Amino acid sequence: MDGLKPSTANSSPLTPIGFLERAATVYGSCPSIIYNDSVHTWSQTHQRCIKLASALHSMGINPGDVVSVVAPNIPAMYEMHFSVPMCGAILNTINIRLDARTISVLLGHSEAKIVFVDFQFQPLIEEAIGQLERPPALIIIEDGDEEGGRLDRSSSQLTYEALVEKGDPSFKWVRPESEWSPMILNYTSGTTSSPKGVVHCHRGIFIMTVDSLLDWTVPKQPVYLWTLPMFHANGWSYPWGIAAMGGTNICLRKFDAAIVYATIRKHGVTHMCGAPVVLNMLANAPESARVQLPHVVHILTAGAPPPASVLFRTESLGFAVSHGYGLTETAGLTVSCAWKGEWDRFPATERARLKARQGVRTLCMTEIDVVDAESGSSVTRDGSTLGEIVLRGGSILLGYLKDAESTRKSLRNGWFYTGDVGVMHPDGYMEIKDRSKDVIISGGENMSSVEIESVLYSHPAVNEGAVVARPNEFWGETPCAFVSLKDEYQKKRPLETEIIAFCRERLPHYMVPKTVIFVPELPKTSTGKVQKFVLREMAKKLGTSESPVSRM
């Protein structure tokens, strides 16, 4: 077929921004965003995003400039996922739980021109930009529904709504010159204490958005509850996905189990996302906070390996849980536990065990594998041989901002090396076992902290559990468990020896925790990931165990 080649008609850059334009046409009068008692339609949201993009353009924000935002799941946060790239800029959502010094580092590293900040975090951001030689312009997001959420009218401080009002509703949004043009900058979540700037392009976000809708089989016009922070990997790309399907976004300023249950009933919520900690909070909420679900609510969970016992408890309440795996570097979930019909015949505990596996590649991910760290060869598909999880596909990051060395280490041999340790089962389903830095090596034996944690979660008194290495003079290191207890066990708490005995009955003896520390709550990032580097430091401060430990 000589002479046939790409043309401008068939090679226009892929971008998810056009999903909003289509939603305004098809679902214009339907609700797009509900927040407390306020409701916007898709036509209104489209107009507001166009006007904000226009206002940013008039302020001198050009293609390639970074615009940061520090805010919870409020309407402005949702709108900026469209309006910022609509003016050609790069959106950078920042974790609201970071301290001023860290935020200052991120703003300086990204060279952000503007930072939008929710009123509650204004003092934090003022402290952060006060540490910069070239501080970005500060724009406050007011909230009339919250106490103290409105600025003094005599203030000269520019606000989000004032900027929207200044915008031109006939502004022609800036389409990317190339689908490879950067669109998103996210900093890794902080489980390693050294965040890196992950850059994604329009093409990658488009592919991930479509993939996420296909894999979760999201129907037209879902009612989506924002229990997953939009600042975490852009809410796994669902801000654009819900627009594509003309759904309704229910925004929540903060997570509260009682409010979630009430909101599900009030608004007919059909879908929500969250880390396993969200499932755990829903399952362990006081009976007074829970309400009977009026219909099946679909929950997509990822971000950490979910214990089978947590999945079982959540589904017993009437939620339908789907499980997947992804990273900030993949813009969303690229592996999912695709369910097989024959598994429905298994007992509930076995179904939960199977669902706890991460699964197979999603439709738009080209290939996944588990490889030996030294040879790069695929590990044996036996469900026990550990290796590093590697991925290749269209939603993989472009690279790390101003960090060529990390980019080179992660993108090599045609793969993205995740740093996660897993196994491949005989049926082709992958299961994550640990972060490479969290594998415990005791007496030459590699052990998975995730496997030990799964047993801890099955103890009736345990609310949360995490396992890290504690230095040991004889074995090198041994498992140290940090445990928080359910409310009803606070006064009648189990002994350390009882937890150890419980694990000994269910694990190979060399994997049994040799130390159990009870804590009020595990240290976590705002997305629910346990900060194991904090726990490792706590374990080190316990000192080195000197006496040999029997493994019999």
Task: Spell out the blueprint of helices and strands.
Layout: H1 18-26, E1 31-35, E2 38-41, H2 42-58, E3 66-70, H3 75-86, E4 90-93, H4 100-110, E5 114-118, H5 122-129, E6 137-141, H6 160-166, E7 182-187, E8 197-201, H7 202-215, E9 223-225, H8 233-236, H9 238-244, E10 248-250, H10 257-267, E11 271-274, H11 276-283, E12 297-301, H12 308-316, E13 319-327, E14 332-336, H13 348-355, E15 360-361, E16 365-371, E17 387-393, E18 399-400, H14 404-410, E19 411-412, E20 415-424, E21 430-435, E22 440-442, E23 445-447, H15 449-457, E24 462-472, E25 476-485, H16 496-504, E26 515-518, H17 532-541
Parallel strand pairs: 1-10, 3-4, 3-5, 5-6, 9-10, 9-11, 11-12, 12-13, 25-26
Antiparallel strand pairs: 1-2, 7-8, 8-18, 13-14, 14-15, 16-17, 17-20, 19-20, 20-21, 22-23, 24-25
Report on this model:
The structure is a single chain. With about 550 residues, the protein is of the alpha/beta class. Among the domains are: about 15-200 and about 225-235, ANL, N-terminal domain (Rossmann fold), CATH 3.40.50.12780; about 440-540, 2-Layer Sandwich (GMP Synthetase, Chain A, domain 3). It is built from 17 helices and 26 strands. The strands form 6 sheets. A 9-stranded mixed β-sheet has the order 2-1-10-9-11-12-13-14-15, with helices on both faces. Strands 16, 17, 19, 20 and 21 form a 5-stranded antiparallel β-sheet that branches. The chain has a 4-stranded parallel β-sheet with strand order 4-3-5-6, with helices on both faces. A hairpin with a 2-residue loop joins strand 19 (about 410) and strand 20. Helix 4 (about 100-110) packs across helix 5. The chain is globular and about 70 Å long. The termini are far apart.
